[in-house]
Design a protein that fits this description.
Elements lengths: L6 H6 L20 E6 L6 H4 L3 E9 L7 H9 L4 E4 L6 H12 L7 E6 L3 H9 L6 E5 L2
Length: 140
Amino acid sequence: MCSTANVELVKSLGADRVMDYTKEDFTRSDQTYNIIFDTVNKSSFSRCKNALKQGGVYLITMPTLDIFPQLLWTSIAGSKKVKFGGSNASPENLNFLRELIEARKIKSVIDRVYPLEQIVEAHRYVNKGHKKGNVAIKIE
């Protein structure tokens, strides 16, 4: 899922299918998914629940307070789960990521680079919710 402006970028990253959320609501189609990975907190479990297959997982990276009851409840009941995808920066995982990057199986997208002195502006830009890729802070 992305906006119209990002369709070509997402395709260039290797997506099999790209949906423009300004034109299509994936939660209203008959298609169901094993995993819905909300990387930017633009949705909710309750909104996505019907788009999940039985045993499916709604995965988030940035939990909010309202998601914790759902995390707890779905861990006990129901076949559809909410999970928080925190990172595990073990040496093995970091080496695996390095290998993927070196093999060019992972493509990084850097939208903007800010010097450390402009970190407040960098946060403002990210908080607007329209970045295309990552924002990096350059430390010299």
